[in-house]
Amino acid sequence: MSVKICGQVGRLKREKIEEYVELHANTWEGVLKTIKKCHLNNYSIFLHDDMVFAYFEYTGSDFDADMAKMAKDQITQNWWAHTRPCFVKFAMSEQGEFYTDMKQIFFNE
Questions:
Q1: Distance of alpha carbon 62 from alpha carbon 69, whole angstroms
Q2: Which residues 6+ apart lie within 8 Å of 35 measured at CB?
């Protein structure tokens, strides 16, 4: 099994940091199921000041198809309607304007 290691970074609006943290302290069960269904494992989000860093491992065989499946999921869309307003428009990338993928420059097993 091949594993794709992913890191992403984004910036929160200062007045929304507490809300974002609270949302993730009570992540909806449907969102968690979709994350697993789309082959994302060991998903973690870290906070430093107003910056968030997300880490996950992708274990599926078609990352783009799984991300499209996640984007079409109604529960996930509702979740994003709550979480995305917490972000500053940080980066314009293929994934959106709220976070950007980071380039992995080191890995040690």
A1: 11
A2: 43, 70
Q: Give the C-alpha separation, 85 to 71, whole Å.
A: 17
d(Cα 61, Cα 50) in Å, to the nearest integer? 33
Annotate 62-84 with b (16+ C-beta within 10 A) or e (fewer). eeeebbebbeebeebeebbeebe
Q: What's the confidence (pLDDT) of residue 51?
A: 95
List, for residues 80-94, the tens digit of each pLDDT value. 999 999 998 765 555
75: tokens are 């529960």
Q: How does the average pLDDT of the chain come out, rounded? A: 91
Least Cα distance to 42 among 6, 1, 82 occurs for 6
> Left, alpha or beta for 49 (phi > 0: left; psi -120 to 50: alpha)?
left
For the whole model, what pTM was predicted?
Answer: 0.86
Rounded CA-CA distance 88/97 in Å is 9
Going along the chain from its start, the domains and CATH numbers come out as 4-101 (3.30.70.1090)
